[in-house]
Structures are given as structure tokens and as C-alpha cells.
């Protein structure tokens, strides 16, 4: 069993064969370009932290955006390179906690719980601060996270099994550590000839905690939705899509 570490690329390397299958049913691929267009009709340049195989970056590029992205997995970036086919997409190999991109972008994306994959609050704060530095003066930072309450409601570990492809099953076993604000997911991919297992850990922030970290980076919350269809947050929401902009002096920035 392997434990995924996003800083070394092991997350992408271990899941490379099944990553796109795991997220095949998500609506974000179809909704994200229009969501970003409504945020800022004039936006042209996008930076994605954790670009991976281009699951989201490529649809964004097909919609007219110029997309750059950082990822620590060479295997993921190799898949991305094979799919670009002339689209305006650039992948940079590196750990986004320390790899500095000095350019500014109209929209910066930290999606699919990527922020929660970082194991410590100071690392999450560092990445949000770096993302703020990557924004133009009118830029938007979009962070997608799960609602911790989904896991806090569970009193014991649970498992879910879904088909990924013919003769391939994915079983996710989920363990919640309330004290450490941590969710451990054990992914078991079953094929006729073998079972591959990888452990993924995420460290949650509540929406209010996320807002406080963003405020410390000079950002302010402008919108929070339940999904990229801009649906409102309710007590039944399982995810949050939070949009931040840079604070100005008039807004109270130091």
C-alpha cells in the first residue's frame, strides 16, 4: 500500500492509470468554462494549481482560455502533453508550495480538494498566499473544497464500491479523524489479475477557517456556491466553490 504525497508526485504517479476514470462522472468539466466566463467575461489567462492530466485545463483551453498549470507528477504531465494538440496549455513540473510562477493571471484555480491535500495549515496558507500573488489586480481565485460536515456526520469508517471500467472496480474506504481534521481515503482498484491500493489523506478547513486564511493573504470572499452551476449553498451541500479577490486599501487591506 502506498501513501500519496502531492509534493513528490506520488499521488499522480500511483493513480495515473485510473485518475480520469475516477473523476469521469463529475460535472465540473462541462460547467467550469462558463462559470469562469460569468466571473469575468474579459478573463483570458488562467493558472491551475494541480493541473494533472489536463482534465479541467483542456476544456478551459478549448473554450478560449490560455492555461498554465503546476503539477508535481511527471506521469500526469506526460499525459497532459500527449493531449494538448496545439491548445494553449502549458504544464510546469514542480511542487506548487515552492515553485514560484512570477506571472499574473486573470483566474487562479485550486480545485478538486487540492488545497486539502496539503498536510499542514501553514502549507495551505503559503499556497493561498502564492495564489494571491499570481492574481492580476482584478483577478479571481477559485477554491473548490468538500464540506467537512459530510465526514463529521459519520461515526465510523465506511466503504463505497463503484465500477470504473469493464472488469475494474474502485473501493474507497474512508476514515475520519475529528481531532486532526483529517480524512483518510484508501483507494483499492481491483482488476482480474491484481488489486492496487493507495492511501490519500486530506486535511480540511471549515469555510470560515478558509476565509480567515484567505484574509491573511490579502484576499476577500466575494461568492460561495455549492457547485460550478452557481447553485446556492444549503445545509445539504457537499462541496463549496469559493471565489476570492484581492482586497484594496478601500476594503481595509493594510
Residue share in helices?
25-40%
Computed over alpha carbons, the radius of gyration is: 18 Å
Fourth CATH level, the homologous superfamily of the largest domain: Vaccinia Virus protein VP39
Instruction: Specify the oligomeric state.
Output: single chain
Describe this structure in words.
This protein is α/β, with parallel strands linked by helices. It folds into two domains: about 10-150 and about 205-245, Rossmann fold; about 150-200, N-terminal domain of TfIIb. Helices cover about 25% and strands about 35% of the residues. It has eight helices and twelve strands. The strands form two sheets. A seven-stranded mixed sheet has the order 4-3-2-5-6-12-11, with helices on both faces. Strands 1-10-9-8-7 form a five-stranded mixed sheet. The model has no long low-confidence stretch (mean pLDDT about 90).
Secondary structure: elements and pairs:
Elements: E1 2-3, H1 10-15, H2 19-22, H3 28-39, E2 45-49, H4 57-62, E3 66-71, H5 74-84, E4 89-93, E5 105-110, H6 121-133, E6 135-146, H7 149-152, E7 158-165, E8 168-177, E9 182-190, E10 195-203, H8 207-216, E11 219-225, E12 239-246
GO molecular function: methyltransferase activity
Keywords: Methyltransferase, Transferase
Pfam families: Methyltransf_25
Summarize the model shown:
With 254 residues, this protein is an alpha/beta fold.
Amino acid at each position: 500500500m502506498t501513501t500519496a504525497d502531492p509534493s513528490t508526485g506520488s499521488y499522480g504517479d500511483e493513480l495515473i492509470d485510473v485518475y480520469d476514470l475516477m473523476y469521469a462522472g463529475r460535472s465540473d468539466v462541462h460547467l467550469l468554462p462558463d462559470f469562469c466566463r460569468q466571473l469575468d467575461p474579459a478573463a483570458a489567462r488562467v493558472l491551475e494549481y494541480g493541473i494533472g492530466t489536463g482534465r479541467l485545463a483542456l476544456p478551459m483551453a478549448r473554450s478560449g482560455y490560455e492555461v498554465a498549470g503546476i503539477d508535481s507528477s511527471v506521469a500526469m504531465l506526460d499525459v497532459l502533453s500527449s493531449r494538448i494538440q496545439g491548445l494553449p496549455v502549458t504544464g510546469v513540473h514542480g511542487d506548487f508550495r515552492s515553485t514560484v510562477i512570477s506571472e499574473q493571471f486573470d483566474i487562479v484555480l485550486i480545485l478538486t480538494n487540492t488545497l486539502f491535500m496539503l498536510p499542514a495549515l501553514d502549507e495551505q496558507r503559503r499556497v493561498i498566499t502564492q495564489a494571491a500573488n499570481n492574481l492580476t489586480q482584478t483577478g479571481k481565485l477559485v477554491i473548490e473544497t468538500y464540506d467537512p460536515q459530510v465526514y463529521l456526520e459519520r461515526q465510523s469508517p465506511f466503504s463505497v464500491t463503484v465500477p470504473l471500467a469493464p472488469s475494474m472496480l474502485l473501493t474507497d474506504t474512508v476514515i475520519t479523524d475529528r481531532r486532526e481534521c483529517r480524512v483518510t481515503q484508501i483507494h483499492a482498484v481491483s482488476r482480474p489479475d491484481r488489486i492496487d491500493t493507495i492511501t490519500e489523506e486530506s486535511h480540511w478547513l471549515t469555510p470560515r477557517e478558509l476565509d480567515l486564511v484567505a484574509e491573511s493573504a490579502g484576499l476577500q470572499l466575494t461568492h460561495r456556491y455549492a457547485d460550478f452551476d452557481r447553485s446556492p449553498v444549503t445545509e445539504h451541500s457537499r462541496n463549496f466553490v469559493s471565489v476570492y479577490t484581492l482586497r484594496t486599501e478601500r476594503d481595509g487591506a493594510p
